[in-house]
Each structure stands twice: as structure tokens, then as C-alpha cells.
Write a structure and sequence with these properties.
By secondary structure, the chain is mostly beta strands. The protein is built from no helices and eleven strands. Strand 5 and strand 6 (58-60) form a beta hairpin. It is globular.
Length: 124
């Protein structure tokens, strides 16, 4: 079983920055494409960003493009989401996700493993 543990969430003012991290268990982290989703009450889980297993390819939702950056450090079994210029609309629970195939990030239903989520709250 692959376990994903997020950290780094919290409260930040609009316009500020925050970096959330996700540490994966096991020895096969480099085999997985990784990504982030977010969810607010009453809405579907929304794709945010993804990164290929090698780190050579990334993809972002239009709503965060230019503000968020996904990266990974395979030696540390960790994926990061750097969030800049945060807006109140970014407030959500952010979930780390792993999939054996990069193409599975087009929908949350195809994700293989999920983290427990970390709350990010952006105040106005």
C-alpha cells in the first residue's frame, strides 16, 4: 500500500504564498506520476496540477496557471506545490495524488492513491 502524507497547509492572506508537501512511503515513488487536487464543500474534487514520474512534464488547471508550481524530489519521495499570489477562491482541502499513468490525471476517478488532505485557507 502506498501512503501519501501532506503537510504545509494553513492560513494565509490573499496575495501571499504557501508551499504544501506530500511525502510518499515505499521505494517506488519515482515510478508514479504525481499531482494535486482540491475540494471545497458542495463541489467536486478539482484537478490542480500534475507532474510526470521523471518530472519532465507538468500540467496545470487554468485557474492556477502562472501562480502555482508543482515539483518533485524523487530522492526524498516528495512532491511539492508552491502556491503564489493566493486568492480566497483557492481555499480548499488540497489532496496529494499518485497514479501509475500520467494520463490518469484528467479525472479524479482514475487516481490510484490519495493523501488525507491538508487545509489551505486564504483570507481576504
Amino acid at each position: 500500500q502506498v501512503q501519501l502524507v501532506e503537510s504545509g497547509g494553513g492560513l494565509v492572506q490573499a496575495g501571499g504564498s504557501l508551499r504544501v508537501s506530500c511525502v510518499a512511503s515505499g521505494r517506488t515513488f519515482s515510478m508514479y506520476a504525481m499531482g494535486w487536487f482540491r475540494q471545497v464543500p458542495g463541489k467536486e474534487r478539482e484537478f490542480v496540477a500534475s507532474i510526470s514520474s521523471s518530472g519532465g512534464s507538468t500540467n496545470y488547471a487554468d485557474s492556477v496557471k502562472g501562480r502555482f508550481t508543482i515539483s518533485r524530489n524523487n530522492a526524498k519521495n516528495t512532491v511539492y506545490l508552491q502556491m503564489n499570489s493566493l486568492k480566497p477562491e483557492d481555499t480548499a482541502v488540497y489532496y496529494c495524488a499518485a497514479a501509475l499513468y500520467y494520463s490518469r490525471f484528467h479525472t479524479s476517478y482514475d487516481i490510484d492513491y490519495w493523501g488525507q488532505g491538508t487545509q489551505v485557507t486564504v483570507s481576504s
